[in-house]
Amino acid sequence: MMILNNLFPVFALIGLGSLLKNIHLTGEHFLRSSDRLVYFIFFPAMLFWKIGSAPSVDNGATDLIAAAICAVAAIYLVSAVCLKLFKVSHFAAGSFSQSCYRFNTYVGMAVIMNALGETGVSRFGILIGFIIPIINVLAVSTLIWYSGQTLHARERLRITLRALISNPLIIGCLAGMAYSRLVGEFPVFLDNTFRLAAMVALPLALLSIGGTLTLKNLKTHMGQAFLGSAIKLLMLPAVGWFFLNAFDASPLSFQVGMLFFALPASPAIIVLSSQLNSNTELASAAIVLSTLLSFFSMSAVLLSF
Fold it and tell me: How many Å apart are CA 102 and CA 51, to the nearest integer?
């Protein structure tokens, strides 16, 4: 029942998104528009509201943040070794590396909301506010290194800072942290407004994820996509479990952390890969495969609670 209650709604909406696309009730224009609405408006607003209405929630997140940073850094090094060990081409290197550690924020928020409620969502929001900038730095660094472009340090710094400063999810998290510390609660009219906006965010995000999933690139890139998914869904949770124990994580941080480590790869891989000359077909295949397989990784985590 734990799996049915917490994962079925998430994957049902993802499946519905795919079905609606296939029967032409949605299309590319709708999916692009809805994705932009979620990314720039509804999801940042929800993060701001959830984090901002939970006073001092960040005080209990240091164990989780430390464990997540260490685990992601370790997996990033593993991905770098795999690039050499499995002779991944320069064109595919950036996409493959990202598939090993970038996470799907929307799926994470939906599952954690179902499984752990408001306190879990707030803790997860604090975590992503810290970990997204680090992941972007790692991803951009690898993509530039293997892109074949000769960029000066100042240009690399500019690209990285632009990716961070323009990220609405980071802005929403940081603004929520500041509001939580300075104010801690919303007036009723604002609370109700954010509540309505939050009701739109996750369903629309999950429908968009389903609509963008396609199997056409999976056969061609199965080997590297499977390797990236195995590192993301098997090795990262194992390494994350070690660091959560090493930092003596609280029960809530441990549960949020393990679900975070078991999440599928992020659709953002395609965006950065296309901007910095990496293989978007591999990125697409890795996203599809890890999304399908994440049902089992997240099920295993939920059963351990």
Answer: 22
Q: Which long-range contacts (CB under 8 A, 24 or more apart) does 180-188 make?
A: 180/51, 180/52, 180/53, 180/54, 180/55, 180/56, 180/57, 180/58, 181/55, 181/56, 181/58, 183/52, 184/52, 184/53, 184/55, 184/56, 185/53, 185/55, 186/49, 186/52, 186/53
Under DSSP, the state recorded for 215 is S
Alpha helix positions (H), the chain? 2-22, 28-37, 43-52, 62-85, 90-99, 105-146, 153-165, 168-182, 188-212, 222-230, 236-246, 251-261, 268-275, 280-304
Residues in the chain: 305
What does the alpha-carbon distance between residue 190 and residue 216 come to, in Å, rounded to a whole number? 44
Please list, in sequence order, all residues whose beta carbon lies within 8 angstroms of the beta carbon of residue 85, skipping any fewer than 6 positions away: none
CB atoms within 10 A of CB 85: 10
Residue 44 in contact with residue 166, Cβ under 8 Å? no
Global confidence as pTM: 0.88
CA dist 93 and 143 (Å) reads 7
Q: What is the DSSP string of 9-56?
A: HHHHHHHHHHHHHHTTSS-HHHHHHHHHHIIIIIHHHHHHHHHHTSTT
The separation between CA 42 and the C-alpha centre of its own chain, rounded to angstroms, equals: 16
Q: Could you list the pLDDT tens digit for every one of the 305 residues in the chain?
A: 788 899 999 999 999 999 999 999 998 899 889 888 998 899 899 989 988 887 554 556 899 999 999 999 999 999 999 999 999 999 999 999 999 999 999 999 999 999 999 889 889 988 988 898 889 888 888 887 887 666 666 776 776 677 667 778 888 888 888 888 888 789 999 999 999 988 899 999 999 999 988 888 788 899 999 999 999 999 999 999 999 999 999 999 999 999 999 999 998 888 778 877 789 899 999 999 999 999 999 999 999 88
